[in-house]
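In the design runs reported in the main text, the only information available to the sequence generator was the tokenized backbone. The following block is the verbatim input for one such run; it is reproduced so that readers can re-run the procedure and compare outputs position by position.
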């Protein structure tokens, strides 16, 4: 399917995001940003950077810190104003691609950026029946730009690194959106078990990372791209000057340090426990189907009449993310952010009451 075709007359709203669901007085289960007090190792450098706002931002120290974290030279790191800017840079710099493919359901900004740059996009829609797992044979051999999330928003599926790496080939740009990679954990495996961030020699690989989710920095806008230096030079050529602010650069340096890495792994481990609790509670509710095997900071569920239920939840003080704005989903899908056990228990009790009404 090319362009806007999805096989139905309904075209999802690619510009809709979870923050549109949130309102005053609502418990936020719609936005996948962790809300917790900022640790001193992060807050202190950001505050200190405010004394330097008269000078233009210097990205070199932050770029070097991120590069060291991933075992790369600084030339293989491009800092961006959040992951979303990275998608815009890719779409603008790669106007010469002939067959861009976006694997859905996934975050809608990659396709939106491609369309805005004049690309004609082919969608590959993964199937709920097999848990939204990727079948590499679905990707056209002549696709010269492929975009996929890992773990994927909104399905929470974590694709095996080997499966994704097999999609890389000369003449193709393979973009892996790892905005939520630091939310993943596996028993006995330190760090991010399926990340390709350190795979320097895969041809055409671009890894998109975000620092806004785990560290609650959505308002600061900080992310980065990892790729070979030549490709990043093409992307940097279409990036505005001084795109990343001095406070955001301070945050990037702090989040690449060893204290941040240790803290991030502890957060991911706790998130695994909290997610399993949410899945268990949801699975006890008749009529609620949890999609696949969730691996990130959110869970996708299928509920008949989800739109009615979403509005009823709002009336009871809860915000969840509608699923019908993601290509490949529809009106019976909702995305729910993972929170602490107490919040999950309160939410699922209200959800059960609404479904029984």
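Verbatim output:
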């Amino acid at each position: 399917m090319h362009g806007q075709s999805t096989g139905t007359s309904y075209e999802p709203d690619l510009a809709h995001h979870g923050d549109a669901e949130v309102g005053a007085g609502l418990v936020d289960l719609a936005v996948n940003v962790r809300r917790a007090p900022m640790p001193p190792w992060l807050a202190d450098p950001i505050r200190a950077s405010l004394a330097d706002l008269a000078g233009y931002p210097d990205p070199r120290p932050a770029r070097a810190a991120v590069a060291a974290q991933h075992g790369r030279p600084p030339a293989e790191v491009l800092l961006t104003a959040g992951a979303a800017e990275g998608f815009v840079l890719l779409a603008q710099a790669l106007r010469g691609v002939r067959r861009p493919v976006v694997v859905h359901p996934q975050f809608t900004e990659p396709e939106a950026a491609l369309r805005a740059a004049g690309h004609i996009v082919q969608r590959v829609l993964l199937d709920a029946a097999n848990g939204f797992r990727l079948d590499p044979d679905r990707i056209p051999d002549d696709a010269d730009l492929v975009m996929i999330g890992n773990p994927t928003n909104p399905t929470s599926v974590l694709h095996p690194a080997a499966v994704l790496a097999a999609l890389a080939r000369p003449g193709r740009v393979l973009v892996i959106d790892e905005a939520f990679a630091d939310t993943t954990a596996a028993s006995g495996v330190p760090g991010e078990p399926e990340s390709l961030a350190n795979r320097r020699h895969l041809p055409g690989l671009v890894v998109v990372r975000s620092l806004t989710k785990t560290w609650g920095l959505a308002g600061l806008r900080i992310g980065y791209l990892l790729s070979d230096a030549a490709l990043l030079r093409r992307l940097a050529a279409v990036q505005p000057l001084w795109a990343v602010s001095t406070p955001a650069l301070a945050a990037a340096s702090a989040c690449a340090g060893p204290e941040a890495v240790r803290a991030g792994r502890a957060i991911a481990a706790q998130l695994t426990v909290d997610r399993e609790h949410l899945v268990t509670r949801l699975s006890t509710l008749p009529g609620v189907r949890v999609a696949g095997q969730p691996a990130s900071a959110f869970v996708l569920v299928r509920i008949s009449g989800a739109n009615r239920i979403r509005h009823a939840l709002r009336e009871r003080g809860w915000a969840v993310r509608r699923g019908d704005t993601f290509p490949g989903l529809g009106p019976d899908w909702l995305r729910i952010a993972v929170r602490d056990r107490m919040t999950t228990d309160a939410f699922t009790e209200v959800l059960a009451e609404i479904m029984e009404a």
